[in-house]
User: Which sequence fits this backbone?
């Protein structure tokens, strides 16, 4: 019987979380979609990364359905689950509300309701985003028109989880990671949108100017640090509700970050910055900027106090961020920004 369920187990963060949990000897159930081929691919990836997968079982789950669409056999297999990690999300820009909401909003609600049925539940850990939890917003069409479907659906799901879990008596931790980059030592990514898109534009000479200002702050966190942080949450968080912003505060401001990567890759860094408001008014054919990504460009800083305390208790330290960024950029280029894979 598995003590832990990871939803979104085949995703970018989910598979690194599995690796961290298995490395700690935790019996894990991984929710997969796609049958035996997806199961075999996940196990092959885990073994290639040094994991012993004998403590891993897989179940077919669909968070867009009530009770996660589990079969009676899988429901019984998960009867003793204590910890639930929801890393499942549809992460893509240009989505419609009809595509994004079932997974990122309704799916998040379904996970809370299912978790409330676990008699031995210790904690639900919901993976959110660092730009979506500033306030609880559930204002429907207006939210989607303002933010775009991806960010709006994540914001709605985040608010729904934080409102519903206390009502159902579900101990909850919401983890809000910043832009997740590749492994600190190998640079291995597997995710090629967001900040990776700026690196691709830089590499291909299609970044004549940077959006934002000299103080624009797009913080990063390596995927291996995030995975170890998540794996530590259920042992260390004790209160009914916790929220952690997880990011490396040593991340350079965006122009300095891009200059660092340009120097590493041997390309020219843009010297000009353009205000986000101006870019929004210019044709996309001229700027090459996806309007949905502009909302992530801000000068704001984030309170990482609770995450820092948990990290100290877990013995975690961020790897050197500039070195991690270089490894990540090299791997992005080697992977042809996802096309080689």
Assistant:
């Amino acid at each position: 019987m598995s003590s832990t369920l990871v939803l979104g187990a085949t995703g970018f963060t989910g598979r690194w979380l599995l690796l961290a949990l298995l490395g700690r000897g935790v019996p894990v159930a991984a929710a997969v979609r796609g049958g035996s081929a997806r199961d075999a691919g996940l196990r092959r990836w885990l073994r290639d990364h040094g994991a012993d997968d004998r403590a891993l079982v897989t179940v077919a789950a669909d968070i867009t359905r009530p009770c996660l669409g589990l079969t009676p056999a899988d429901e019984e297999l998960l009867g003793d689950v204590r910890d639930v990690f929801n890393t499942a999300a549809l992460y893509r820009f240009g989505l419609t509300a009809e595509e994004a909401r079932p997974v990122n909003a309704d799916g998040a609600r379904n996970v809370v309701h299912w978790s409330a049925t676990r008699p031995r539940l210790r904690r639900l850990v919901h993976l959110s985003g660092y730009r979506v939890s500033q306030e609880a917003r559930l204002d429907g069409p207006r939210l989607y028109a303002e933010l775009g479907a991806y960010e709006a659906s994540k914001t709605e799901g985040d608010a729904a989880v934080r409102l519903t879990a206390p009502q159902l008596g579900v101990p909850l931790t919401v983890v809000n990671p910043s832009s997740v980059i590749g492994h600190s030592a190998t640079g291995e990514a597997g995710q090629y949108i967001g900040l990776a898109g700026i690196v691709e534009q830089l590499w291909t000479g299609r970044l004549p100017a940077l959006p934002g200002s000299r103080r624009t702050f797009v913080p990063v966190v390596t995927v291996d640090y995030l995975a170890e942080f998540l794996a530590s949450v259920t042992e260390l968080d004790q209160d009914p509700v916790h929220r952690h912003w997880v990011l490396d505060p040593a991340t350079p401001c965006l122009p300095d970050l891009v200059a660092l990567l340009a120097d590493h890759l041997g390309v020219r860094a843009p010297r000009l910055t353009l205000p986000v408001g101006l870019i929004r008014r210019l044709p996309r054919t001229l700027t090459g900027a996806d309007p949905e990504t502009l909302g992530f460009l801000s000068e704001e800083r984030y309170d990482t106090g609770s995450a820092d305390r948990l990290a100290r208790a877990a013995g975690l330290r961020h790897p050197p961020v500039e070195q991690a960024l270089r490894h990540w950029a090299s791997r992005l280029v080697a992977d042809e920004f996802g096309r080689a894979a």
